[in-house]
Amino acid sequence: MEPTLRPRVKVCCIASVEEAWVAIRAGASALGLVSAMPSGPGVIAEQQIAAIARRVPPGVASFLLTSARDTATIIAQQRRLRVDTLQIVDMLADGTYDDLREALPGISLVQVIHVVGPESLAEAVHLAPHVDALLLDSGNPALAVKELGGTGRVHDWQVSRAIRAAVAVPVFLAGGLHAGNVAEAIRQVGPYGLDLCSGVRSDGALDPAKLAAFFAAVATA
């Protein structure tokens, strides 16, 4: 896919309706709501996810981050929580993307690719035709306790650039982004979207000053 010069921004690890609106007013076009994970920050109860999703205005996407690997669980989650986008942070083991599309018409599917090396390119090319977008992150699903996001680490952007160029769906870039490196990330990768959590937080809370600096850096990249 062609590079995007002014990527959209998804602010992840949203913990409350108040945080959601801080991110939206700063310019976020998508919000990430984290359900149960084996590790990492930002996990909130499903009741809270549903409450936030109800308050997200038209034009702003609500992403549910799910670590479930079977489609029946993922379908049930979406029907309970009413988000408009599913961010699948691990690989499906039971069921298919077609099962998700049939059960959840109109719900966007975003598959996370954890960029661990050049081999991630082949994985991305294989999965891209089945989803609406890919999200390139810096986790490691092979660990005993899986890392499925929120590591705050930067991965190899050259691999991310190769993935973006090779696939025909939009690509979000995640992993250690902040105001100080996002311009270079945009230059190197050209992603459709940017995804961040720790880079705009202080002591775990969304930081309006860091958000403003991030969006300013994106605007001038």
Question: Could you give a quick summary of the protein structure above?
Answer:
This protein is of the alpha/beta class and 221 residues long. It has helices at 17-26, 46-55, 71-81, 97-103, 119-127, 157-166, 182-189, 208-219; strands at residues 8-11, 30-34, 61-66, 85-88, 108-114, 133-137, 171-173, 193-196, 201-202, 205-206.
Describe it:
35% of the residues lie in helices and 19% in strands. The chain is an alpha/beta fold. The chain has a single domain, classed as Alpha-Beta Barrel (TIM Barrel). The longest helix has 12 residues, at 208-219. The relative contact order is 0.18.
Q: What strand line-up does the widest sheet have? A: 1-2-3-4-5-6-7-8
CATH fold name: TIM Barrel
What CATH architecture label applies? Alpha-Beta Barrel
Poorly predicted regions: none
Instruction: Give the CA-based shape.
Output: globular
Sketch the major β-sheet. 8 strands, parallel, barrel
Overall tally of structural domains: 1
CATH level 4 superfamily: Aldolase class I
Query: What structural class results from the helix and strand content?
Result: alpha/beta
Number of strands: 10
Mean of pLDDT: 95
Helix content: 25-40%
Rg (CA only): 16 Å
